[in-house]
Fold each of these.
Amino acid sequence: MPSNPSMSAAIVGAAEADRIGYLETPKTATMMHVEAIRNVCKQTGIKVSQIEAVFSAGVSPQIAEYLGIHPKFFDTTSVGGCSFEMHVHHALAAINSGICDVALVTHGEIGWSARATKGRGTGRASGGDPWVPDALWSNPYGVTGAPSNYSHSMTRHMHQWGSREEDFAQIAITTRDWATLNPRAIMQSKDTNPAGGPLTMADYKASRYISWPLHLLDCCLVTDHGGAVLVASADVARSLGTKPVWIAGAGENTSHSNMLEMEDFTATSAKASGEAAYKMAGMGPGDMEMAMIYDSFTITAAITAEMLGLTPRGEGPSLWANGAAGPGGKFPVNTNGGGLSFNHSGMYGMQLLVEAYRQLSHTAEDGVNGLPGKQTNAKSCVVNGTGGSLSNTGTLVLVSD
Amino acid sequence: MADYNKPIPDPDPYTTGPFWEGAKQGKLMLPRCTVCNRVHFYPRTICPHCHSDSLEWIEASGEGYLHTFAVQHRAFGGWADEVPFVTAYIDLKEGDRMFTVLRGVDASKPETIKIGSKVKVEFEKATDEVHIPFWRVVS
Ligand SMILES: [Zn+2]
């Protein structure tokens, strides 16, 4: 008889690579993985040799081999930035079914350093298949990467729901406010980056269009990052010195792969993955005290807020209006400064997990690698990753011990 | 003729052959399911609506409507010379969608481009074998 896996496992630690952001001396993606893994093991007291399951976006056998371990469960789900939320979902299922007690979810990506390494050391195969739908039906028309695709969704949102660029600007401004409180954030201040520090509406409007209607300041950063979390059974979680953050609910879904098949350009599968996660948790959007929402672009965050039931349909940006989602606001969102102003390496789902763990374990001000963040009072958090071209989503409902 | 300097599709002859044969003759060919009678795009070997494998190719009207668009200010290769240009999703009159670079619009004035505008297909010869569909606003 299947049992509801809710609360059968917890995130027991979450760590980052020693240095993240714009590394002055390039590293490889594998180096970023290993630094984060070493740090999360140190944090939790779990030895590398005690890891029984490995989850990563595409490289689990390679990471296991590099570490010299032989996991009895592994998964390389690689569907963009939401992969890591899905890994936690899968780890929860594996732990609940008794297959393993200790699972590693790991991430290493060098979005920034890859410029200096000329694409080497990313751990990714190059070249594409000319017969896949993207190659035949999209790429001939000059689209280049995520911004050039996501912009079509923002245009449709403005047409269908009457949203304005000022509404999206508020997401960028509020998210930046969080970044100013996070010394790990690229855009914390003018000291961390010439373009850092608080943003104004004028800054937003003056920023150039990358793909109209997306301004530069609607778009995430491209950085280096390594992160790792350990997911453990309730018994193991109780035996450790770290505070567990319980996995109350998890869900995942997909609406399309190529944007050609995105039926409603103002909706994502976060509606379905969110409902699954809330149902497993026996909770709803009204029970959430904060949110970590993938903000590859302001439009991504806005639509996700609607899909997760945090705002009515068409009113996603209102979650951020008047700083309501910012520091001191009534509903904190993206407390690390987001992909927009903290760090975004390409697949940002791990950064969401690390921050959610820090907030719900109330360790945000303990610091990561000596750098503290800003603690909120939240005891529950909905975490939503989005991957591909608004294609795939993974949602988690996490709660404090 | 100057060489076509933008990405040229390398067509899959097994599932998309009739599309490219039609394109050479200026015809928009679309797959239609003989069970549910619905058209789909991109071409597949199974109907994504009812999952039948009984499919035929029809010559479409080549007409549609603008569903949504964006103005690209950054591009690579041959497209870099064309910025800013407008990319768009087209609702086909027969159903389903195609993606395109939209013609007949002013990319420097996105506020003048109207979702819902009527569009027509045209083909540009990239090679003897590959003629690429583009859509143009007609009002
Ligand atoms: Zn059918």
Amino acid sequence: MNDSMIIGQYVPGQSLVHRMDPRMKMTIIFFFVIVVFFANSFGSYGLLTLFAFVSVAITRIPLSFILKGLKPVWFLILFTFLLHVFFTRQGDVLFEIFSFPVYEEAIEQGVKISLRFFLLILLTSLLTLTTTPISITDAIESMFHPLKKVKFPVHELALMMSISLRFIPTLMQETEKISKAQASRGVDFRSGPIKERVKAIVPLLVPLFVSAFKRAEDLAMAMEARGYQGGEGRTKLRELTLTKEDIAALVLFVVVMVGVFILRT
Amino acid sequence: MQISFKNVSYIYQPKTPFEYKALQDLSFTIPSGSFVAVIGHTGSGKSTLLQHLNGLLAPTHGEVEIGDYKIQADEKNKQLKSLREQVGVVFQYPEHQLFEETVYKDIAFGPTNFGVEKDEIDDRVERTIDSVGLSSDMLERSPFDLSGGQMRRVAIAGVLAMEPSVLVLDEPTAGLDPRGQREMMDMFYQLHRDQQLTTVLVTHSMEDALAYADYVLVMDQGQLYMEGEPLEVFHQKEALNDVGLDVPEIIEFITKFEQKFDTSMQYTNQPLSQFAEQLKNKLKGGHHDE
Ligand SMILES: Nc1ncnc2c1ncn2[C@@H]1O[C@H](COP(=O)(O)OP(=O)(O)O)[C@@H](O)[C@H]1O
Ligand SMILES: [Mg+2]
């Protein structure tokens, strides 16, 4: 497994954020994403940043772990920043890099846009870090339920999604196991000419496909044996319920959002 | 080749909330040519230990020595390939690693990767398919058309064809029927004998550990809990029970027998028929009140 990649990874915990109704988390994040684009002043950005970091603190997941896990995204953020720094030409010239003028506005724009980007990613990754994939699917199914009226296959899609999510870790483990077995038989996945490395994928992919098909077959058989026949009349083991905590979180969020609009200039 | 672990620790996903200490300060030596069984409860770190033997994992702390090879933390090992040629690893459910169109190609895969000559490969394929107890008629068939047991044998042949001097086996008989299990263990033992291999076997079968090993390592929670010769280890029933392990039935029987009849039996892993004879003499010659 790739240690430095945390997007999509769930970190078990008991915090308030972990316990929240996934629908509430998704709603809050959805509106947060929108409101972030309205922020334009020091105060409004500050408030949003504060909200994001307090949320992180509540989860009790070490910030350093999250930041390290966002490594692949840092590059994008930096790139966005530089793009703005070099291509915005307003305000006074602050200094020059290799005779390339850097404007005051440019720095400000750069910081704002990359901060916006950072906040978006931080908060959305908080969703997957504190919510099991199954809860996310449940939430989606529940929120899209009204679409059933127009014959949209909500249940089937949710089921497909949860099965896929369920098998991602299994497939990753399997990949690791098989690549170790083939490495023991002298396959070198890490070095050598590109052509050789591409060839090295075959002994990995064939067993993976074989086992994935086998698993799919077994699962289909097991579902049939237990009388699965679609979503009609099916009840849930874990009902989603909104609690007082969820309402409190929502109220707090609304207050912050109102604050952002007041602090806008 | 002699294998030695010096204060080896291994941590999975260090410095994350998922950090897990799978091995803690392991030290032991396996002399060249010996047959060592590694036993321990599920999750005790046996498979993690095995993966250090051919450099799939490098210790987080400490050092592993296999023959002349040294594997240390934070050190790029250049001769990994030749180490892997010398140390053949049969993983759990090795049949999952099959991928070629024919049995022949799959067995030849390892030796080909290590640059063995074509003629030599032909020889080895013939020899290994025979030693795993399959007929050479199968060589042109697809491995995916075989039965589970046959697939397992083909996969094992693929490892043996590398002609390793250390053979590492991770629960090689899991999921086979009792007879298949015995045949397979006998096969490994014979190879061990005939080719003077150093064999490391992870097993859940205390019977196998007693029957085949000269030395037993007992793992518990990533630590070396106990080590010694099989008879020595298996006489410590309580200590083994504490870490979720049983003792072989025969040892249990002898212990009970000795208590009941207040006597002592010489058991040194002799064949059962011989031991039965010994028992008979003891019961006949002993002082009982008939
Ligand atoms: N790739 C991995 N990432 C994280 N933890 C792992 C990984 N592989 C094994 N572990 C953990 O290390 C411990 C020892 O595993 P393992 O060596 O497979 O035990 P055994 O073979 O004795 O059953 C287990 O608790 C397992 O969950
Ligand atoms: Mg294991």
